[in-house]
Design goal:
eight-stranded mixed β-sheet, 15 strands, globular, three-stranded mixed β-sheet, alpha/beta, Rossmann fold
């Protein structure tokens, strides 16, 4: 019952459903019925002409079906910031939702990093069905502070992470963020590594200091505690590199400075004037019949 209540709350409170909550509920019910009668993956429309291959087990990606943009502020920020031929870094790409947005909609080049083989296979499917192999470089590895190897969980879907206990795990190669972007720095980084953010940032000092990098979308939800890290230290790391924490109103395209707060994806920007000009002048995109 609590799971159903959480879904209902998500659908009714989500910014993308405020004009038509009934339609969101209908999409949820249709998806539940469809996955009840078949176990096959389904191709669902995404933003503009892009699509995603989604399975019932993809708890994060299924939000695309219900609300269009599960993370509307962050996804809209990425779409409004990026331009053709920019470089986007997708660290913890999962099934490739952000890489499809960056390269499928905006035609930016992307480097998508996903360490777990099963998830990387789903990512490859989403790249292939959108014909993005030439624009997205998939790196099946981890990112940390030093080169080496790390063990990752394999049975937690979108929440797979660097393992600290025994259980189903896989050992994968790991390189520093600076080595990943040795030749060219990205304009935007998305970092979603289930609590390992501190180590990723420690291995990216050159990347973080480079003026080419204008913004970071990073998950701060307290999960770093499993490794002895806290979100405030991540915030301090980024501020030391000249980044400012902001929120984004995707309807008005306005940035607002915000105090530190843990609880989900967070946007940090550097060279705010450049970023605001990009956001203001970006072409609109369409999702679920909405133009944003």
């Amino acid at each position: 019952m609590s799971a159903l209540w959480n879904i209902a709350s998500f659908l009714f409170k989500h910014p993308m459903t405020q004009d038509n909550r009934v339609a969101a509920v209908m999409r949820f019910l249709q998806w539940q019925f469809a996955t009840w009668i078949t176990r096959f993956a389904m191709v669902v429309p995404f933003v503009d002409d892009t699509v995603l291959v989604i399975r019932k087990s993809m708890t994060g990606a299924t939000g695309v079906i219900y609300v269009g943009l599960p993370e509307p502020e962050d996804m809209s920020f990425a779409l409004h910031l990026l331009r053709e031929n920019d470089l986007f870094g997708d660290i913890g790409a999962n099934v490739g939702v952000y890489s499809v947005l960056a390269s499928g909609v905006r035609k930016a080049h992307s480097v998508a990093v996903e360490p777990v083989e099963q998830t990387a296979q789903h990512l490859r499917q989403n790249l292939a069905i959108n014909s993005l192999e030439a624009l997205v470089e998939l790196r099946q590895m981890g990112i940390g502070s030093l080169a080496g190897e790390l063990r990752f969980t394999t049975n937690e879907g979108a929440e797979n992470h660097v393992a600290i206990d025994d259980g189903p795990v896989v050992t994968v190669p790991v390189i520093p963020l600076d080595d990943l972007f040795e030749k060219r720095k990205p304009i935007l980084l998305k970092i979603d590594v289930e609590g390992f953010e501190t180590q990723v940032l420690l291995g990216g000092k050159q990347t973080l200091s480079d003026p080419e990098l204008k913004a970071i979308i990073i998950e701060l939800n307290g999960s770093g505690a499993r490794y002895g890290y806290d979100d405030m230290s991540v915030d301090a790391q980024l501020r030391n590199h000249g980044f400012e924490r902001v929120s984004y109103d995707f309807r008005t395209r306005e940035l607002r400075s915000t105090p530190f707060e843990s609880g989900g994806n967070t946007i940090y920007v550097k060279d705010r004037g450049f970023v605001e000009e990009r956001l203001r002048t970006a072409t609109a995109f369409r999702v679920l019949s909405q133009t944003i």
